Amino acid sequence: MEKNDHKLFSEFPPVSTAEWEAKIIEDLKGADYQKKLIWKTPEGIDVKPYYRAEDLDGIMNESSYPGVAPFIRGNSADGNNWEIRQEIPLSDPIEANRIARDAFAKGAISLGFDTSGILSVNDLEVLLKGIPFPEASLYLGAASSYPTLLKLISGYAAKRKLPPTFIRGSIDFDPISYILLSGNFWKSQEDDLAEVAEIVKLGKELLPNLKVINVNGQYFHNAGATLVQELAFSMASANEYLAYCNGNGLTVDDVSPRLGFAFGIGSNYFMEIAKLRAARLLWSRIASQYKPGNADSLKTCLHSTTSHWNKTVYDPHVNILRTTTEAMSAILGGANSVLITPFDTFYKDADDFSERIARNQQVILREEAYLGKVADAGAGSYYIESLTHSIAEAAWKLFLEVEEMGGMIEAIKKNFIQESIEKIASQRLSDIANRRTFILGTNQYPNTGEMMLGKIQTIDEEVEPESADGKPAIFKKLEIGRGAEAFDDLRLNTEIFVNEGGKRPAVFLLTMGNLAMRKARAMFSTNFFGCAGYEIIDNNGFKTVEEGVRAAISSEAEIVVICSSDEEYAEIASPLVKAIKDQNDKTLVVLAGYPKELIESLKNDGFDEFIHVRSNLLETLRNIQKKLGIAG
Predict the structure, then answer these.
(1) Mean pLDDT, rounded, of the chain
(2) Is the pTM of this model over 0.70?
């Protein structure tokens, strides 16, 4: 058979970047290229409108293969065999065991346990009864003493005659995260770091396949940090542990195999894929500085948990959509294990249904979407490869800044970490309040008829960790939160008001004039006031001021929104507001739009608010709730 070297599309002449750029500039017709087509991320990275092979110059090289240092493309050359994690947040070992065995039988491989009630080997036997090792892996948290827990696990393995290597997974030992969450050390800086060295030695001696240090980057993520901050501060924490151990007789070959990272995964799909790839590159770069004798010390283990920051109480089933794309980012980025937080966790204890949905989301991605069959599916993508290195370099720069301060703990003492994240989180919250960032069902396209108050269970508020000696916080704490919290509270205030005997506020849309403008502004107003949980009364339009006022007053709505065009407001806005206020001066009258030349006179005529695309949605709705007598 004759060999065919003909390449697809070879009959078309190549097009240079200069030619592409010339055509783009021509099509922009004088518009600013930077403003129109360059996306500037919160991380300070400029994302171009397109990428080409030349963007990979100096990036792709002979080491850019799966299973090869610097492990950007993952630790294994064979597929992507991530572990599905399910957490069982129960301290009762009998009930936790029942749930864990059921979860394992239905696809969960990594089982997360609360070990606060584990005080003996016998307790562990109850907790782990029927759990097969080494098929299952463990994630163990909430221990009062992790060195003691390691000894108990070792004793459990010996009693069951299990080889120590059969016990694999990780424990949630992370003293630096403890400082950030509590504002103080567990005991003292020296004692806490000494425990890091102790636990590494114990892990190496007793349980070689158990990660004994877990760097919780997810806390940075859920406090509102950027991807770059999450990466840089996580690497700085890991380096703090490694440097201390190295100075106390342990090598990088002792520490690195026993250290893992837990990252949050948000909805920025491609950026999150690139973040995990960048994390492996960064750890390889850091570990190499300690001159490892084993190339495997350049590898790292990455766990990913779906974001809490972007989840909502209202329209909670949308959380399932969010966590699905987030899990895909984690898997395609090469996470070693993934936890999908159940969609209802943010207003109640997860139940069998929500746990099953969360688990099956990953089972589908593995068994039906075949995401486990390919190692690093994004490799070679001009966009993803470029993002990976842009994120890595930005994170490396911030990491070096922390190191120049003396390392992670010194940066925490100076409140640098906390204030850096606080600044970004404040901006992100402002963007949500102003709807520069949308959260579906919360500040955009709300389900106005949804009621959640009766579905919310009373959950004990998370108790902030306290030092071993009960010492008060001496450093600023890292504030964990959700971007939608303020809007969730706003709607809950409305429901509580109604539940306590108040009338659900109604918004009457008084539409007149230009058909396109009144419909557009009515839709805008529906979205706007729906975010507070108010009843919306829409209309087909009124021909006269008198007809509109009569219908508005008859509706007994607490709020009337005038919806028309700016041109027609000059004629109809003033008569409308005066007529409504004359008949009921308690009615709040709102104008949809912001006709600058009329604003002052319309305020004098009696308009209470003006709503438009530049309105601070949260602030405006809070102000209206105060006027309606709905307490915060």
Answers:
(1) 94
(2) yes
